[in-house]
Amino acid sequence: MRVIKRFEIKTALLAALCIYLAMCIGCGSDGKNSPEDDAGNLRIGTPMQVRQANLLADYSYNILAMLATHETLVRFDSAMRPVPQLAKSWEVSPDGRQWRFHLVSGALWHDGRPVTAADVKFTFEYLAAHHSASAWIRDLVSDIRTDGNTVTFLLTKPYGRFLINVGFIVRILPRHVWQTVEDPLKPGKADITLGCGPFIFENSDPLGNRVTFRKNPSYYGPLPMMEGLEFFTNLTFDALALSLGRGDIDVFYKYASGFPPPYLPKLAKMEKIQFITAESMGVPAALGFNLKQGPASLPDFRKAILPAFDYEKIAYSLMGSSGKIPSTGFVPPAFDFYLQLPALVFSPGQSRRQLAAMGLSDTDSDGYLNLSSGKNLSLTILARSDLEGTDALLPILSHNFKQVGIDLKIERADLSTWIARVREGRFDLILFRTTPWGMVMDAGCGSGYFDSRREGGGTLANIEDLAFHLLCDRILKNTDPSTERQLYH
Fold first, then answer.
1. At 239, phi and psi to the nearest 5?
2. DSSP 251
3. Residue 334: what pLDDT?
4. Residue ranges of the chain assigned to CATH 3.10.105.10
5. 3-state SS assignment for residue 17
6. Cα separations (Å) of 251 from 16, 241, 282, 325?
7. How far from 26 is each of 30, 38, 86, CA to CA, in Å?
8. What is the pLDDT of residue 80?
9. Is the dihedral of CA 166, 172, 173, 176 positive or negative?
10. Residue 3 · residue 314 · CB < 8 Å
11. From the CA atom positions of the chain, what is the Rg in Å?
12. If DSSP codes are grouped into helix, strand and coil, which group holds residue 285?
């Protein structure tokens, strides 16, 4: 159930905010703005909750750090292609085992010290040694060498997607701050908010739900036009809609999300509120299966329920009038390697016929199919309680399943519980989403969500098929762009 449009909402200042906020604003060729260019503070409302200003311990703050204070070797352009950030250029060896990065000159930490190749080397070595979520670095990187403003990574294996899976995701840390921090989850009084990005951390108030940043006048790149950023966090969508209408905030932001469609008609009537649409680079809602047990583990069963869903109604519930009926593929059209496939068709009768061909029938005439034991066919779907759109989507799914004789039991869980239950396999069906980053991570095309060798928050890790693993490995090793499309298709 993939839909391919998303909504974002803005006032006149929305153009100043995107995933790489500082790169979306105008400035002179010398990187300096005239006084009349200054736009004051940009006030941003978000449902994201920041509990502590530690990018290695708080998921939401990590996102804000990416936007404001911390830089990576490379960033993504609007098409999710790697482009320079702290690294102005790079080379890869023919065998894909060595990646060399040439750093920009003039980058400074917020305390005035220069950003060096030694900081980059330290960051990777520190995370590998002290940050459990970064243990993969030990398996991939055998050595890191520096020479002036150049950093060279020596890898344990060919790795053609180093820019995406490594260069983009690791926020570079100042060695002089973090080298005294033994436990990144307990940094003590270390100035861990210090970065080298276009904004400087100012304050975080978890109780007041507010995080503020001020402009970094010494930023090596284009200077922001606004003087600062004010994030008003942990807001409900009701509160966000009200604040936008009153002008209390300038823009809405949530990582990899748009504003829920049910609010849009009312907001559209408000003066000065404007909307933009963009092709989604993530999948807002997808149905996953327990491939190890229960009816959902059977390929014939999964094929049988495919026509059971009202895709038009699902698309509308998630994206309003901009939602489109998905195809049998999983990659959104916004990506270079999108392959046009047949659209999914809603046909409850066809679904019932395919289920009947499996020997499933309603033996007691109560409206539900019966298993060989005589029990009703009942499936449990696990949904995340923190994702908008589920309230409207789940009743549609429940009705569609009932139409073909399947009882659907709905269980909601917060993210941490959801992750634990996925790992334990305590579900029949699972409702999840993908983000733009998730679609390109690992071998790309969403493979990182399904490869059983890659467990992590928000992934299913449920495909153990050897052919799938070998294909992912070939993509990861490939350094020849001319063969990439062939591997994906």
1. -65, -40
2. E
3. 84
4. 286-488
5. coil
6. 9, 10, 21, 29
7. 12, 11, 20
8. 85
9. positive
10. yes
11. 24
12. coil
Spatial distance between the Cα atoms of 171 and 195, rounded to a whole number of angstroms: 9
How far is residue 113 from each of residues 116, 157, 176, 194, 248, measured CA to CA in Å?
9, 35, 9, 11, 37
**Residue 39: predicted pLDDT:** 66
Q: Per-residue DSSP letters for 222-236?
A: PPPSSSEEEEE-S--
Tokens of 455: 């467990």
The pair of three-digit structure tokens given for residue 5, joined into one six-digit string: 């449009």
Structurally, what CATH architecture does the domain formed by 71-187 represent? Alpha-Beta Complex (3.90)
Q: Cα separations (Å) of 361 from 213, 298, 312, 376?
A: 62, 17, 27, 10
Residues 349-383 have pLDDT tens digits of 999 999 999 999 999 999 999 999 999 999 999 99
Q: Where in the chain is the domain with CATH 3.90.76.10?
A: 71-187
Q: Would you call 328 helix, strand, or coil by DSSP?
A: coil
Extract the tokens encoding 468: 């799938």
Asked whether 215 and 240 are in contact (CB, 8 A), the reply is no
Distance CA 235, CA 60 (A): 13
Compute the distance between CA of residue 212 and CA of residue 205 in angstroms, rounded to an integer: 9
> 3-state SS of 72-113?
CCEEECCCCCEEECCEEEEEECCCCCEEEEEECCCCECCCCC
CATH number of 286-488: 3.30.300.110, 1.10.3660.10, 3.10.105.10, 3.30.750.24? 3.10.105.10
Sign of the four-CA dihedral 324, 329, 330, 335? negative
Give the H/E segment covering residue 202.
Answer: strand 199-205
Q: Classify residue 289 by its DSSP letter.
A: E
Q: What percent of the chain has pLDDT over 90?
A: 75
186 φ, ψ (degrees, to nearest 5)? -135, 75
What is the identity of the amino acid at 97? R
- pTM for this one? 0.86
- The ranges of the chain with pLDDT < 70 are 1-39
For residue 60 the two structure tokens come to: 């939401």
